[in-house]
Amino acid sequence: MRGTLVLFVSLSLLQGTMSQTPPEGDSLTECTDGYEWDVQSQHCKDINECVTIAEPCQGEMKCFNHYGGYLCLPRSASVITAPEPSSQAPAGPPPQSNEAFGSCPVGYQVQGESCVDVDECILDLHDCQPSQQCLNTVGTYSCQCPEGYSKIGLECVDVDECRYRYCQHRCVNLPGSFSCECEPGFQVAGNNRSCVDVNECDMGAPCQQRCYNTYGSFLCRCEQGYELGPDGFICNDIDECSYSSYMCQHQCANEPGRFSCICPEGYQLLGTRLCQDVNECETGTHQCEEGQTCVNIHGGYHCTDHNRCQEPYVQVSDNRCVCPVIKPECRELPFSIVQRYMSITSERSVPSDIFQIQATSVYPGAYNTFRIRSGDDNGEFYIRQINNISAMLVLARAITGPKEYTLELEMVSVNPLRSYKTSSALRLSVFVGPYAF
Questions:
Q1: d(C-alpha 393, C-alpha 354), whole Å
Q2: Whole-number Å distance between alpha carbons of 330 and 401
Q3: Does 166 have pLDDT greater than 90?
């Protein structure tokens, strides 16, 4: 414990000049040092140097006023005025009281005819530490710690509220207080302690297309036909055409967020990926003249004359010519020629069966053979006989169009019992389209 200095001061030693009166007839009043003339009482009045002098005492010393001067004493010192002997009472008005000396108890001062409480906190007459707050009470004062501080020894030390887990996520201790912080994706709730999820999608999340809120975060997603970029926010177009050459039957065209298939001229889109040949002969979009027949081929059409029979043949139907036996030149020629048309696409896989030949008349005991009579100068085709009455025309080499082949296929019938031999021909026009499907 700190010691307390108690100072007893006799008023009779300090009041000798209190009743100074100026000489009669002297208009200029003078008082000794430490006093000033009081016009109302017509006496010299003590000056309170503790009030009129700025910082009269330095360090931990406390100012105590007395008549004609002041004292600098430790803050723990108490001044008790000794009673004045009656034999030394001066003539004249009673002395004035102040906070250090007077007839009032410690902590009070004379005001008129009564004692009033001294506010030591306002007058800086307390000994509270800089970290403490002075609280005035009746007749004295107390030193208290601000909210958020606790007293340890003589000092007020900040209370670390974060030790008591006041916050849901993170606690930040502050002088005399604390604050709560939340992890990214959360915000402090109304109670300033809990954390609630933030809907980033409603707060301008940087998603280019779609945003999905999650607990504490968010996700960006893209529309169909787009993929999320490396940054997780931007959506980039997917080039579906680069994934596979089978996306479209003919040509693939990439577009933002999608793709489309394009068909060549003479074809139309079937569904979304396949190309279907347009039959101009059925739709009436051909330009064949009168006397011509429209033959549909892949990607277009072909106009042929109605009568394609050449001497010595005679036309007997739309697509059949006959060489009369009465004409001598017909003896070495096929008896009949039937006209047929077909169309194939370019780059067809080989070998490939493309046309079957079938005998329409079968005679007992006859043997039939099949051959390519003309039109296959480069060996792109050959005949594969299936049985006695049928054979298959085979594409032997890959061909590229547009191109037209006119093949004359012949079936020779021989009957050895009757020494009979005859033949018939099939004139086949093969149109090769420009596109491979």
A1: 6
A2: 35
A3: no
